[in-house]
Protein: ASCH domain-containing protein
Amino acid sequence: MSNQNDPNTLPPKTCSVDRMVTVKEDVEKVLAGKKTATRRNGRYADVGEIMTLEGQDFVVENVYSQSLGELTDEHARQEGFESLEDYKQSILSMHPGMPWLPQMRVWVHEFSPVKK
Structure:
């Protein structure tokens, strides 16, 4: 992917932005400013799209593909976790039987509150 922010170079979305963050604990982390990204197995948003959680708007600033093997503690902190191991255990507990394969690719959606 040459320009990951150009929607013309990204594959079609597989879901809608309103389904991007739905787990109650994750919604709370976003609203508290502790979660600024979410990783999904599909592409849920385009850059510039707005996600609304409990009446607060967040703009998607970046969308790109990443392998699980590339994840670091800093990426886990974007997700609202203290460490990569904490993030990994959370994901595996939500998806029983899912393997954590370093080559598995996910879509990263980075977002921030809309300034009013």
